[in-house]
Write the structure tokens for this entry.
Amino acid sequence: METHFHSTESRSSPAATRQRLLTVYLNDHLAGAGSGVSLIRRMARTQRDTPAGPLLAELAEEITEDRESLRETMTALDVPARWPRVALGRLAEKAARLKLNGRLVSRSPLSDVLELEAMRLGVEGKASLWRSLGTLAETAGPLDPAAVGRLLDRAERQAAVLERLRVNAVGRTFTADDGTPARAGRDHARRTARHPLSRRTRWAS
């Protein structure tokens, strides 16, 4: 009975609680990393014959390496990989492919925009992970602050590349060949100019 009491006390100690929270946190990011690898690889395949193809292929290689860096970090911190959580992340990424994008069968140009937005958000989340681990690395521990800093720099660069690709995709998708916005957008702008308070009035009513 006494042994059981000490065992419960150990599991609920501050150190055990911190380790448990770290395990959940890193496994959530590992699941997201798996989804990100699947998405960026698919994007690289889909656009391999476009001007964006080489950049996406390079990003796919780097993002795959980043996932391995996260696994190595988890091992260094004695955090086990919770594979059911990782598998759920992969299922979520596959389910996201079913999102309506304006076409039922063929790939829509909107897919490029949505995928690049999702990928950029994922990379920004990864950058936040490296910032968190950078804080942890500043304490006495197994992490190398310089290595974590390099991973953060790479994530920020990846986000910048994805943003440039996203802006280009928006231009291709929503503007005409002469660079003017889609007609619906121009019509909406004219209506708003004629009645600038109409929408605000409806919201306030």
